[in-house]
Design goal:
Elements lengths: L6 E4 L4 E4 L7 E4 L2 H21 L19
Antiparallel strand pairs: 1-2, 2-3
Length: 71
């Protein structure tokens, strides 16, 4: 079991997400919950496809931190 970072962004119509560890894997949803479900399914599908085609599965490596800046 691996954990992949996903970056979530608010859009005009809901939410979108991508994983910096898995190029080309994105998902959208009207709500955060819907987007998270779609992103999990997209990651599983994407990685299964890569494995079936003989590609190396990318290892999770991205991390996230917040920077506190006085504005």
């Amino acid at each position: 079991m691996s954990e992949y970072l996903i970056v979530i962004e608010k859009t005009e119509t809901g939410y979108s997400a991508y994983s910096p560890d898995v190029d080309g894997c994105i998902a959208t949803g009207a709500t955060k919950g819907e987007m998270e479900k779609q992103m999990k399914e997209a990651l599983e599908f994407h990685l299964e496809g890569m494995a079936s085609e003989g590609y190396d599965i990318p290892r999770p490596h991205a991390v996230a931190r917040y920077a506190r800046i006085a504005a």
